Amino acid sequence: MLIAEAADARNLMLVRSRLICVMVAIVLLACGRVESQSKPKMDNLIVYGEGFSFAVKEPDGWRADTGEIASQYHVNVIFSPLQEASLKHNVSIRVRVSKKQDENTIEDLNYDMQQYKKQFPAAQFSDLTITHPEYKTFARRVFLPDKFHEYVAYLNPGPGKPFVFSVAMSRQDAPATEDELRAYELVLKSVQWMTSSAIVK
Predict the structure, then answer these.
(1) Per the domain annotation, does 198 fall within a domain?
(2) What are the pLDDT digits (tens) for 5-38?
(3) Count of domains observed in the chain
(4) Are residues 6 and 54 in the same domain?
(5) Cα 154–chain centre separation
(6) pLDDT at 8
(7) 99-148: per-residue pLDDT in tens?
């Protein structure tokens, strides 16, 4: 009789311990679900290159590439839209890091504009009122109506940094939409220089 009672007690303890394990697993699973649902979208990218790294935000509805597509465009990161309307017009936002020659960054932009003029003599230019919250910003828009519209900005992170950023957006046929301009502005304003590991020679 005592042996039977002891066996029953052991079985009861086993059942209880299994129930506790199941309940703990359910609680942990529920907590994991709550945590994953409350986590914000991981839209900050860290882009690395030779002797530099920088952070940039990926706009909602866009996909970033730092590999094959970016290298085809000779940039460090390219953002492509997921919306069909933007895809039809070959819209892209591109960020490139270049070694700085001096602090006269406006000349880098002027050189780019001269190259556009050489290649497209009928190209038109206009001011682009967009600025980075911390870095000196030099921006222009160049376009051929019904052909292409290019939005180009150079960012100078300051005298202690050996690189400049160029942030450009292209669109075929027509000017950028409000949504596309918002995405471009988000990318430009989110660019953030990080510590360099080496100086490119």
Answers:
(1) no
(2) 444 444 434 333 443 333 333 333 333 333 333 3
(3) 2
(4) no
(5) 17
(6) 47
(7) 998 999 999 999 999 999 999 999 999 999 999 999 999 999 999 998 99
Residue 20: which residues within 8 A CB-CB, separation 6 or more?
none
Strand 136-144 to 124-127 pairing: antiparallel
| Cα–Cα dist 164/149, whole Å | 23
Q: Determine the 3-state secondary structure of 184 from DSSP.
A: helix
**How far, in Å, CA of 199 to CA of 178, rounded?**
38
- The CATH code of the domain that includes 101 is 3.40.1000.10
Summary mean pLDDT of the chain: 81
- CA dist 78 and 66 (Å) reads 7
CA–CA distances in Å: residue 66 to residues 48, 72, 95, 122, 159: 9, 10, 10, 33, 27
Please report where in the chains the tokens 């970033």 appear, as a residue. Answer: 64
Do residue 107 and residue 58 come from a single domain? yes
